[in-house]
Amino acid sequence: MGEQFTPELKAYCLSLGADLFGVADLKHVEGIPTIPTDLLDSYKYAVIIGVTYSFEVFEQIVDGPTPLYSRQQTAANALLDHMSFLVQKHISAAGYRALAQAASLVMDKENWMPNVSTKALARAAGLGWLGKNLLLINPQYGSRIRIAAVLTNAPLEAGIPMQNHCGECTKCQEACPAQAIRGAYWRDYPASREAALDFARCLGKLKDEFSPRPDIGQPICGICIKACPFTQPKKRSR
Ligand code: B12
Ligand code: SF4
Ligand code: SF4
């Protein structure tokens, strides 16, 4: 059954505008913190959809986010929320449970925790690894992607989780304006957020310095995305 539904669902997601599609078996994220704590209990898989930014958006980022990047992040979030809502409807119409996860929703405002980390789900789906900057690094697009997820119990074929390919690279660590990236290595995922990042430094930069700037209005940055060699365009046709 999964052999039929997975390609059909993938074709549907791509037709909606997704650039990336993957399926995570939730057994690979057993024990991950969620809000509410039993969020994943009625589901077996997460369908991951991703949209890419063009590298040009990051060419303009030098020492902080641009108003254009902020606009495009808002557009990408709206697109992902729209698509994941339609995917939820599509799976429900086929008779299965489905629950879309928002592109950017902070549930615990003190600890900056979401319902579930979609990066962790996307890694489990095989769409990339968690890099030293704690972002999902896709082999083709680096981290110039945004992602959303739909939890489901539909019969699907899951991908294979990806391991870290950062190697000796430290480009994101060198570029970070807050000196927040510790440069630690892990094979699957770090033991904690703090093991990867000096979280207070990153958050302080984004929330207190970048967000109040004119036409930014949200805690964004883009510097550790741009610095990653995998984010660079692979080829230019013109
Ligand atoms: C809250 C939040 C923030 C907060 C906190 C960031 C953080 N790292 O926690 C702030 C405002 C600081 C922030 C900043 C940024 N964010 Co933000 N953010 C989120 C949000 C809503 C939740 C992130 C989260 O889960 N944090 C909790 C920590 C603990 O989880 P984590 O970072 O994934 O790391 C842990 C897990 O992955 C875990 N893990 C992984 N696998 C497994 C498996 C098991 C079994 C277990 C137990 C654990 C585990 O290991 C890690 C350490 O514990 C997500 C969207 C979402 N719903 O996921 C977007 C998201 C992560 N943000 C995103 C981006 C792009 C950014 C910024 C670059 C800003 C910008 N837009 O320019 C920076 C990068 C900062 C950084 N280096 O991490 C993108 C990342 C896309 C990508 N390619 O990875 C996301 C996914 C939004 C999206 N829709 O695409 N963000
Ligand atoms: S988002 Fe900015 S401040 Fe935070 S780790 Fe990346 S480069 Fe550093
Ligand atoms: S810049 Fe280098 S170290 Fe950082 S995430 Fe990319 S590959 Fe990994």
Describe this structure in words.
The protein has 238 residues and is α+β, with helices and mostly antiparallel strands. It has one domain. Helices cover 33% and strands 13% of the residues. The chain has a 4-stranded antiparallel β-sheet, sandwiched between helices. A two-stranded antiparallel ribbon has the order 4-5. Strand 4 (129-130) and strand 5 (136-137) form a beta hairpin. The longest helix is centred in the middle third of the chain and has 27 residues, at 67-93. It is globular, with a radius of gyration of 17 Å. 39% of the residues are buried. It binds cobalamin and iron/sulfur cluster (2 copies). Cobalamin binds at residues 29-32, 73, 103-104, 106, 112-114, 117-120, 123, 130, 133-136, 143, 145-147, 189-190, 192-193, 197, 202-203, 206, 219-222, 224-225.
- Gross geometry: globular
Which bin fits the share of residues in helices? 25-40%
Rg measurement, Å: 17 Å
Q: Low-confidence runs (pLDDT<50, min 5 residues)?
A: none
How are helices and strands ordered from N to C? HEEHHEHEEEHHHH
- Helical run tally: 8
- Overall structural domain count: 1
Main pleated-sheet profile: 4 strands, antiparallel
Strand content: 5-15%
Count of beta strands: 6
Estimate the mean pLDDT confidence: 97
- What class would the helix/strand composition place it in? alpha+beta
**Ligands, ions, cofactors:** cobalamin, iron/sulfur cluster
Calculate the terminal CA-CA distance, rounded to whole Å.
Answer: 43 Å
Tell me the strand order in the biggest sheet: 1-2-6-3
